[in-house]
Design a protein that fits this description.
Strand order of the largest sheet: 6-7-8-9-4-3-10
Distance between the termini: 35 Å
Helix content: under 10%
Shape: globular
Order of helices and strands: EEEHEEEEEEE
Largest sheet: 7 strands, mixed
Structural class: mainly beta
Strand content: 35-45%
Number of helices: 1
């Protein structure tokens, strides 16, 4: 069986990416940085570094949000793209950018003690 190809893009389409393989578990991060960056919790799926192909990247910008983490975003429309910690095996892309119906095997909420008081986690 061939590995499935997943595709995604930012809101304006200036950044496009793809990756092949099995879809990893999803992580919903409720930390303060994610809430400030996304306006709510962040929703990510891990992608093997070698599997991620950035097809159109002229607008890609990066922001070092901590000593160990770099967040990327589109310089044209502002869409967040990913976050990356060099000591992690995977790069985490924003699930909302993926095309089609995405069904990760499992969803895990992380950093829940920092969640906003304005929403509940089921």
């Amino acid at each position: 069986m061939r590995a499935k190809t997943y595709r995604g893009s930012c809101l304006c389409g200036d950044i496009r990416f793809s990756f092949k393989g099995d879809l990893d578990d999803a992580y919903f991060c409720h930390c303060t940085q994610c809430r400030k960056n996304y306006g709510m919790h962040g929703a990510f799926v891990g992608v093997e570094r070698d599997a991620l192909a950035l097809n159109k990247t002229t607008a890609l910008r990066a922001y070092k949000s901590s000593r160990s983490t770099v967040r990327t975003f589109c310089g044209t429309c502002g869409s967040p793209i990913s976050w990356d910690r060099k000591d992690y095996e995977r790069i985490y892309v924003c699930m909302g950018l993926l095309e089609g119906k995405i069904a990760p095997p499992k969803i895990t909420n992380i950093h829940t003690k920092h969640k906003g008081a304005y929403y509940k986690i089921d």
